[in-house]
Each structure stands twice: as C-alpha cells, then as structure tokens.
Amino acid sequence: MKKGTIIFIGQINLKSKLDLNKIYNMSKLIEGIFNHLENWGTFWFGFLFWGSIFGAILTVFFSAFSSSILIILGYFFGIIFGLISNFKKWSWIN
Amino acid sequence: MVMDQLRDIKHQFQNEIEGSEDLSLEAEKRIARSFMGRIEWEMIAIGLTQCFLWFGVWAMVLAGLMPLWLGFSILVVTVTFAYLPSHAGQHGHLSGNKKNLNWLNFWVGQISLIPLAQSHEILKVTHLKHHAHTNDPNNDPDHKHTHTGSWFKSALAVHLQTGDRDERLNNMLERWMESEPKFKEATERGGLVLFGFYILQIVAAINFPLETLFLWWLPRKIAVSYLGVIFSHMPHKELPVGRHADTRFWTNGLIRFFNHSMQIHAMHHMYPKICHHDEPKAIEALRPFMIERGIPGADRIPKKIINNPLTKLDAV
Question: If A54 and its partner were Cys, which of A25, A69, A74, B192 is the partner (CB 3.0–4.6 Å)?
C-alpha cells in the first residue's frame, strides 16, 4: 500500500488518507512494548497487579492508618515482589 | 449356588460372544465412526453457562449482593468447568460435521476460557501436539507436569509451564514455530489474547484488588492445579509412548462427575473425535477392542459405563 492510499470499507469511501509513517511508527511502538514485556512483563505484573492487592490487604488489616500511605506501601511491596519474580522467573505470579 | 452357576454360564457366554467378534482395526474404526460427528451441545451449554455464572458472581459481589467468600467458593467450582468446552472446540466437537458452524469451536472455546485467562488457540495447537506425542519427553508439551512423583508435585508443576521455567517446553515451542507456519500464526494470535488478559487483570486489580484476587486469580490457579492432576497426571503418569499404551483407565474413589470423567480419558486418546459425552457408550461398544489392544486398565473397566460413577474398577 502506497503512502496516502484511500481506504474503502464496503461501498463507503472514507477518503481518509493514511499516513503510513504513523502506522509504521505505531507498529514499531507496539513491537517495542511486546519486546519490553517479554523481559519485564513479570515485573510490571508484580508491581501493578500484586501491588494493588498488597495495598488492599494492608488497608484491611491496618485500617487505623492513612489509606493512601498503605496503598503506596502496597505498590512498594509490589515493586520488590515484581523484581524478585522477574529475576527468579516466577511466571506463576501471572 | 445356583446363582453362582448362572453367573458363570453368563460370563462364559459373554466371553464366547466377545471371542467370536471381529476385532480388526477396520471393525474398530467402523464402530468408533458411528459415535463421531454430532454437535456436542452439552459443552456449548457448559462453556457459556459457567462463563455467565462467572460474570454473574462478579456483578453480585461488586454490587454487594453476595459476600466475597461465597463468590470465591462458587467460582472455585465453576472455573474447573472452563477448560473442557475449549477442549471440545479444539477437537471440533462443537461444530460436529457442520463446517459452517466451525466458528463455534473458537468462539465458545475462547469465551469459556475467560475465567482461566487463557488463549483457546494456544491451548489448541499445544494440545494437538500432546495428542501426537503423548508421554514423549521431547515433544509432549504436558510432559513436565504429568510425569511427576506425586499428584501434589503435578499440581504445582503445571503452574511452572509458562515463562522461562520449562526449558524443554520452550525449545519445543520454538522448534514448532520455526518449522510450522500455522503453529506460529496460531501462537501469535493467541499471544495477543494473552496480552489482553494480562492488561485486563492489571486493570481489574487496580480497581477491585481483593475481588480480582478471590474471584479471578485464585480460582483459576486452583482450577489449573486440578486440571493438571485430573486431566494429565492421573491418566498418563508413568506410561510409555504409544497409541494404545499412553493412557490408562483409573479411579480415585470419587464419582465420575468430580473427575470430569477423566477416568475414561483413554477413550479420548484412542479416538479424539468422539465427543466427551459420548465416550461412555463408545467404551461399552469398543471394550473388547480396548482389551485386545492392551490399553492399560481396559481389562478392569466394567461392561456398563453409562451412569456408572466408576468409583472403582473391577479387580483383575
């Protein structure tokens, strides 16, 4: 497909001229994200998924403390857990 | 005394009938084919119902209509039903002989797998490899969690299949991706589905952390352990490679329902095109062939399988 190709969807001419450079850059970005997650996916899962859960558990057990501090603490534990999991290749956390 | 004599005569008569039967491969295939080709509507119903229940429990817990512990208890049970409909789709049971309904195999299979956060396509291509190379350490993707020293080790090992933990499995996948374009395409499409589940779980955990832990992550981990033990370890452990030698009839004292009928998994490996719900009557018809071929445990399988809980096999 050449740069500036007109897209047809059924009988409708969208007349939207695609900038293939943008598409190329987008696909490069997505590829980059996948490559990054291949090496760091477990870390991000530990940080965001388990960090959220750790924060919620801390909030349940230490309700007297400020919930924002406990949630930040949860994400801190999530970072540590994510790093250890990534290093030890604990794919079961996902 | 008279009853014993009558029973002996009956057994002798049955043995003579079985002995006179045509036990050729052609005869076996002819009988097996008579059980193939129908649409397994039961699996479509199970797949969609358990997924509907999963979403329903989520909605009720989030709305405060159901306590979290109850939702967790329900989903631990229902999520174990998530795999078999996908498995039926992997073998084309959901469309039967109707090629125009092929889409059912993917869509019902994938919808059913939402609670397990798995890709139907990846499970399909790896499961078909499992059938082609059952118990082969270098070519069976399920080998590592199947051939463990105990069911408990199997329940843990099944979670170590992904990532870089299982080098042998990774080598298999890389080899097939290089040599089989269709395997590669299916794996890449499945990879996108897994990426979607990865993002969804993180988003769910950020918004509903404890609910995501108890309604999604924990039930699916427990279900996967159960599946690893009941679907892989028990039917295949310590058995060699070979069409009639790689799967056994077994029992653990529990009724068939609680084992998802995996006591008769040998039937599935003998003829994967026969629907799961037709296996009992197929075994009744193919029993003499199974004994003749030396399928492990076939000589202990009762003559009547339909409605039989199979809590025990006959003594040898």
Answer: A74
What residues in A contact B197, CB-CB < 8 Å?
Answer: none
Coil, strand or helix: which one is B150? coil
Among the listed residues B33, B49, B79, the one whose alpha carbon sits nearest the alpha carbon of residue B215 = B79
In this prediction the pTM is: 0.87
Of A45, A57, A92, which is closest to B159 when you measure between CB atoms?
Answer: A92
3-state SS string for B73-124: HHHHHHHHHCHHHHHHHHCCCCCCCCHHHHHHHHHHHHHHCHHHCCCHHHHH
pLDDT, tens digit (0-9, with 9 covering 90-100), for A35-63? 899 899 999 999 999 999 999 999 999 98
Query: Which residues from B are below 8 Å from A82, CB to CB?
Result: none
- For residue A58, give the amino acid letter: L
How do residues B181-207 score in pLDDT, each as one tens digit? 999 999 999 999 999 999 999 999 999
Q: Where does a domain end: B201, B222, B238?
A: B238
B29 in a domain, yes or no?
A: no
Cβ atoms < 10 Å from Cβ of A86: 21
Query: Is residue B35 within 8 Å of B282, Cβ to Cβ?
Result: yes
Please report residues of B whose CB lies closer than 8 A to that of A42: 163
Residues B128 and B87 in one domain: yes
**Under 8 Å between Cβ of B88 and B275:** yes
Q: Please state the ipTM of this predicted complex.
A: 0.86
Of B223, B238, B253, which one is at a domain's C-terminal end? Answer: B238
Which domain covers residue B94, as residue numbers? Answer: 39-238
Domains: count for chain B: 2
| B67 and B148 share one domain | yes
Asked whether residue B13 is assigned to any structural domain, the reply reads: no
Q: Are residues B103 and B186 in the same domain?
A: yes
